[in-house]
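Reopening this ticket.

The earlier resolution said the output was attached, but the attachment link was broken on my side. Pasting everything inline this time so it's all in one place.
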Amino acid sequence: MNKGAVIKLSTSMVIFGTIGFFSNLTGLPVLELVFLRCVCATLFLIGYWLISGKYKQEIWDRKELIYIILSGIFLVLNWLLLFYAFRQTSITIAISIYNLAPLIALFINIFLFKERVERRIIIATIVAFLGTILITFQFDQSSAGNEVMGGLLALAAAVFYGAIISLGRKIQKSSSYMTTFIQTFIGIVMLMPFVSFVSYTHLTNEGLLFSIVTGIVHTGIVYLLFYDSIRYLSAGIASVLIFLDPLVAIVLDIFITGFIPGPLQIIGVIIIFASLGYTVKYSQTNKEQQ
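Inline output:
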């Protein structure tokens, strides 16, 4: 197991676990927020790509370019759906359902890319997801309609995220800088015709700061780490590590918004941690025996 890749993917997931809170603090409508994320991330990435001289080392592969373009389209749709889900339901519920993505990615790799995945890893991933299901069992019944809509939006986002995870592991030659830059640039092109630029005139200094952070940190840096790690990890390891995302969201819910987890939700958190620990330990032991 590539420990550096594990650290990078874990770091990206921990940072991404805070995205719901930052997005709600920007004060921007969803589409305008995603567009600004793409602009900030693109400027950050192309600046570093050019200044570092890494663009000279790029290997342009036609097949990988198709994967990058497809994943870029999926990435933008995934962001839109997830942020709309945040506006309809609690961050904890949206993120928990959103983390069906690793399970979806596993099945995409198994059935579409014919990848062999250890049965134990599949079981650990399913168990981890069951932990996220337990987390969603406590919410305000008076807003059940919004909860359902938010859950459906999060589920749709998870489908696209699962596809992104699978495609990301197929990108081996292109650098993470080029991959992420192309994807965020695709986002600019996709969203520009639909953006209401008037929304930015009402942006406060605080909202602008949070918007820039979501663009540079939650988009540029997170996806650099994501694509620079996921290509070096098995589908099983990547799928389980991604469950760090909802754990961070839940912890922030508890300490920032005052969310109090019920007994089932506490059990769900424990289950996710246990699945994470088992998968990493098993994969390391399995590799040492080979």
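Reporter confirms the inline version is readable. The chain is about 75% helix and 0% strand. The mean pLDDT is 83.
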